[in-house]
User: Which sequence fits this backbone?
């Protein structure tokens, strides 16, 4: 039995709060060296704040991947009507896709993104969007292979170039 046979995908919820915070901190922590110390501190505050996840759970759906009772991957699907920064009110979007470093390369981020895509289609969304950055090469590769198209450059955030991707459904 391989690793992929042992992975369980399910909807996440409030009971997963601590696991989501830990996962986000570690998975995004891989990029700590790519941004300034000050910007990392802002990320860390956001990743450790319960409100970040409770708000996303309130307005959207969380999908997680478990291995041996540990949440090892996550992604949030947010339906239209919830504008945020550069996401138009008419668009649905994906937030906080993260996978523990030791589990990367097993298709977990791809599967979680596909679950968000399926939810968007099932709920009649017209546009699914997400954002990523110049230092998240693996993520950009996954999104482009799934059919997301770079919509525009968002300019520098946290001292790095960010991009808005969209997919028409």
Assistant:
């Amino acid at each position: 039995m391989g690793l992929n046979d042992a992975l369980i995908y399910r909807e996440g919820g409030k009971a997963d709060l601590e696991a989501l915070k830990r996962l986000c901190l570690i998975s995004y922590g891989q990029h700590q060296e790519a941004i300034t110390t000050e910007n990392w501190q802002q990320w860390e505050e956001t990743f450790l704040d319960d409100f970040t996840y409770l708000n996303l759970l309130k307005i959207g759906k969380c999908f997680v991947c478990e291995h041996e009772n540990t949440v090892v991957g996550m992604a949030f699907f947010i339906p239209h009507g919830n504008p945020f920064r550069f996401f138009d009110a008419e668009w649905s979007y994906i937030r906080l896709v993260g996978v523990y470093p030791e589990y990367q390369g097993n298709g977990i981020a791809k599967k979680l993104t596909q679950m968000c895509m399926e939810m968007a289609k099932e709920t009649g969304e017209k546009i699914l969007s997400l954002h990523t950055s110049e230092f998240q090469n693996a993520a950009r590769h996954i999104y482009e292979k799934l059919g997301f198209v770079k919509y525009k450059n968002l300019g520098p955030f946290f001292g790095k170039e960010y991009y808005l991707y969209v997919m028409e459904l």
Summary: The domain at 3-168 is CATH 3.40.630.30 (Aminopeptidase). The helical segments are 3-6, 17-29, 37-48, 50-59, 108-122, 137-146.
